[in-house]
Amino acid sequence: MSARLFKFSKSNLAVVLISTLVAIGSGFISGQEAFAVPSTGPAVNTVAPLMTDSTTPSKYLTGDTVSVTTGTWSSATGTYGYEWYRCTSSTVTNANTDVSCSKINSASSSSYLLTADDLGIYVYPVVTATGTDASTTAVTANPTLPAFPFNAVVKIAGYYGSGSQLEAAILAAGAIWVPTGYSLQKYDSATGALITSVSVYATDASFDGTSIWATDDINCGIAQIDPSTAQILNLYSVGKYGNICPVGIASDGTNVFVSTHSYAYSETGASYVFNIASHTITTTIPTTNGGYWGVAVDSQYAWIADWGAGNVRQINKSNGAT
Q1: Contact 76, 131 (CB under 8 A)
Q2: What is the model's pTM?
């Protein structure tokens, strides 16, 4: 076969070059497919990362493990990093730069174990994605709830017998106070260890920001207790009448609302408003046979469970009216 020589002009040279460039691999494909180049750019978050409590859903208790998802991203390589922050604000949008946040240097995975250091604050995870251009983009996920993250097992050292009730546990001065019916026990809020026991026969307790108030069943009265030292400051006789003694208590810092109950069920109890400044009972609220039980207060009303009537009474704090 004899060789043939081609002489290229400017016009047919352009045609040859284009045809050569389009011919790729084992066949001819379109020029658009042949020259498609993957796009590069920063990772873009389309669905935010989500943190959940893996141990006790939605509780966020000390000792719980919380985990965060990566979220959904575009232009991402699939490489993710994790950071965790403690913040005092619940409205943080960028934990990396927010002044209310401090980084937890020991946390760098998608899960984190809540500790006593996280009590009363918000913990935010931050997820960082690597983009196809090798840049990184960070997104702050939802925070934990600082609603008393306590998960230690508290062993009640008190004795339960006839006439004693475990009605409520309260948080005050960084400790848990548990009325057992035969004492008021103070526990460490981080470890659950018993710190001390106050010698009052408490069935209920309340903290008003200054003092702890507890019912004293054996003496048919109420006790004012220093939350720091756990020392009894004062004992007051309230509601003592036959077998009727205080069982429920709540204080707003001005008055102590005390409910009484007849353990004999043959006498009529009452509830009392005890003024802290004057140390006197200012209002008596009678009830039906048996008496009252639990008590709660808000800014305007006292709420008292009427055991005998089977309802809850709403008491106006300003005048004692039901």
Answers
A1: yes
A2: 0.49
